[in-house]
Amino acid sequence: MISKVKESKDSIYDLSLIELVGFVDSVGEKAFRAGQIFKWIYEKGAQSFSAMQNLPQELRNKLSEKFSFSSINMSGQQVSVDGTIKLLFELNDGEKIETVIIPTSKRLTLCVSTQAGCKYGCKFCASGIGGLKRNMSCAEIISQILYAKNIMLARQKSCELSHIVFMGVGEPLDNYDNLLKAVRIINAKEGLGIAARKITVSTCGLIEGIKKLSKEGLQVELAISLHGYNDKTRDILMPVNKKYPIKELIKVAKEYIRTTKRQITFEYILIKDLTFSEDAARELAKMFRGMICKMNLIFYNEVPEFDFKAVSRAEGENFKKDLKYYGVHATIRTPRGKDVLAACGQLRHK
Ligand code: SF4
To answer: How far is the CA of 243 from the centre of ligand 1 (A)?
Structure first.
């Protein structure tokens, strides 16, 4: 397990490969040593520099003087009847965040947090209750993944994490630099080696962040939380819509698709008497005309603080059929981990 951080040292998980090349260079070592260190950490799961036996002793000493191996501590774990595992982590300043391991027969997905709390206060989401406490560091983001790998290794003796989704607590694009560094470590072949197409970045629709991401040359998946079929419905659920209304959001989504040649997923929550009807399906079809995109329909998961009501599976299926009729490709996300409050919108930061 990852040990508690020593405050005087930087976490090694905060360094990108390029930054590590800079460090080894600064202590008079060749650049290839950085790749070796990365492999020890991310491929072999080393928890100490002394374990890195193909490095010169002097370099191991210098790494130990400067860096530690930690950044977060696990303070709780709940396992759902469907196999979903929710992990509660305590950060070094006492803030708490949650991470969810979602195993299925075909893939092992990890839903990762990027901030302690969230300032966007979407009206269906427990993560925004209490507002934003702070951004998480790259090390804190990466540590969730390493912990999850260890837990799965201990449970089933092997762990091939196949997908990473940045859909935990926080708005990923509001913590852009740390998110991007973490994505590059996850994606690097010397790092966690997970293909960019298996990494999903979600956003509530931060236009500047979407524009910036489109120019990074990364093949990651982008998921935009839409959750309303016009400004009136989106305003009710997502205060961010006042700043970035649907028209501007769709414009930037189209630019993103043009620049990256990648499809976008629009996340869409199904709430009784609010977000779905035949009119909604028609409006959405009009909105998506000419775009390479798909919709992911999410059943609202009830949160005690909110008054919204969930819809039945049959109602969700009917809406999907309506969308199909109007030419919109939609899938329904199977809810996971509801019994341990690990499903979409239920994650908290305390
Ligand atoms: S849905 Fe995302 S952006 Fe909205 S409050 Fe929750 S974590 Fe924040």
So the answer is: 15
